[in-house]
Design brief:
Belongs to the grh/CP2 family. CP2 subfamily. This protein is α+β, with helices and mostly antiparallel strands. It is 21% helix and 21% strand. It has three domains: 211 residues, no CATH class; 53 residues; 88 residues, Roll (Ubiquitin-like (UB roll)), CATH 3.10.20.90. Helix 6 crosses helix 7.
Length: 388
């Protein structure tokens, strides 16, 4: 039943996903993956030691999986399920779920009103049995036998393998316990449709996977509309248009055709909503306020100095280190031919992307500048700081 319902939904909504991450509104996330063959599943990495917010868009409504009538269809609930794993391991640490219903705006307002009236008609002693509304999703712990297995049928292409296990699926539970951020975690999350009789086997599974990792963090993939460069007051009208297009606001380029970066940054929340509408106005507001996620902090001491400078990396890679150190030393990055780290017994280790990815957060290095005898330039040797 689940397979047929999802395939029918896919046929009627080509090119759309059942669930997707609202990247501009989310924060503290990286390595977002939204497999085009897994419409009800997505994944991302997050650091459990930092504040994280994940905004998930459910692009189907509860009445899409009920028999069609002439109005008054009773929408089925969707189950959001979250599983937590240590990154790279298969042992589940935690699982939780909640139940949601999705309606169009008019139907949602009517449903809320009906629910409130229904509760208020009950005696005060019974009203306490109902769970109050919350601003964010509340999850309840799941026992192992209540956890949905990964739905292998979601892959519409038989030749396209499901590359990521440990996925979370929707069910029908409410309530929550915050995940304990004591270690790097992998948390798959997903959503599924549950029948009105709470028989999950007759529902549609929507899946979403979340992965957590506290170190060696990778940058967001290029397809994610997180702005790699923040909009600044110095942006020209052309640069502003390019920024809007790159970050998913191409529909509003004409509306902002004569705006510089300074012009847009002066706009208030109300101004953005008036120009772009409520949803996109809020999304643009958050995109303008967003900051690059710092994945690695390293402290460097320049030659002849005893003061350390903090370098923040929003991308883990050799090229980023080149750019940051060139800026720190006041030279063009092309003048730096190679960077080495001092290893055991004084050996020189060539700095690669993998080496940078394994640098401990908040490490300290002293920079030694070495003249490159082969050409006009120099090399850098990163050494442990000398203790005085």
């Amino acid at each position: 039943m689940e397979k047929e319902q999802i395939l029918a939904w896919q046929a009627s909504r080509p090119g759309e996903r059942i669930v997707e991450l609202d990247v501009p509104l989310s924060y503290g996330l990286f390595d977002v993956e939204q497999d085009p063959h897994m419409l009800n599943m997505l994944s991302f990495l997050w650091d459990p030691t930092k504040e994280v917010g994940a905004y998930i868009k459910v692009n189907c409504i509860s009445t899409e999986f009920t028999p069609k009538k002439h109005g008054g269809e009773k929408g089925v609930p969707f189950r959001i399920q979250v599983e937590t794993f240590i990154d790279g391991e298969t042992t589940r640490l935690h699982a939780a779920a909640c139940q949601i219903k999705v309606f169009k705006l008019k139907g949602a307002d009517r449903k809320h009103k009906q629910d409130r009236e229904k509760i208020l008609k009950r005696p005060p002693s019974e009203q306490d049995k109902y769970q109050p509304s919350y601003e964010c999703t509340v999850l309840n712990d799941l026992l192992p036998d209540a956890v949905f297995p990964a739905p292998t049928f979601l892959n519409s292409s038989p030749s396209a393998p499901i590359s990521k296990p440990n996925i979370i699926y929707p069910g029908g539970v409410e309530g929550s316990d915050p995940l304990s951020p004591h270690s790097p975690l992998r948390a798959p999350v997903s959503a599924s449709v549950v029948s009105s009789s709470s028989n999950v086997e007759n529902g549609v599974a929507l899946s979403r996977r979340i992965v957590d990792r506290s170190r060696t963090l990778a940058p967001l993939p290029l397809e994610c509309p997180i702005p790699s460069v923040a909009l600044t007051h110095e942006f020209s009208t052309q640069q502003t248009a390019q920024w809007l297009r790159k970050n998913g606001f191409g529909d509003y380029i004409s509306a902002f055709s004569n705006y510089t970066g300074a012009d847009i940054l002066r706009l208030t929340r109300e101004d953005l909503i008036q120009i772009c509408g409520l949803a996109d106005g809020i999304r643009l507001l958050y995109a303008l306020r967003s900051k690059a996620i710092v994945l690695l902090t390293v402290y460097f001491c320049t030659p002849g100095s005893t003061v350390f400078h903090a370098v923040y990396l929003d991308q883990i890679g050799r090229n980023k280190i080149f750019q940051k150190l060139a800026s720190l030393l006041g030279v063009h990055h092309n003048q730096i031919h190679d960077i080495y780290m001092q290893g055991p017994n004084g050996i020189r280790v060539f700095v690669t992307d993998e080496v940078v990815g394994n640098i401990e957060n908040e490490s300290m290095f002293s920079i030694e500048v070495l003249q490159d005898e082969k050409c006009d330039g120099f090399m850098l040797l990163l050494k442990p700081p000398t203790r005085t």
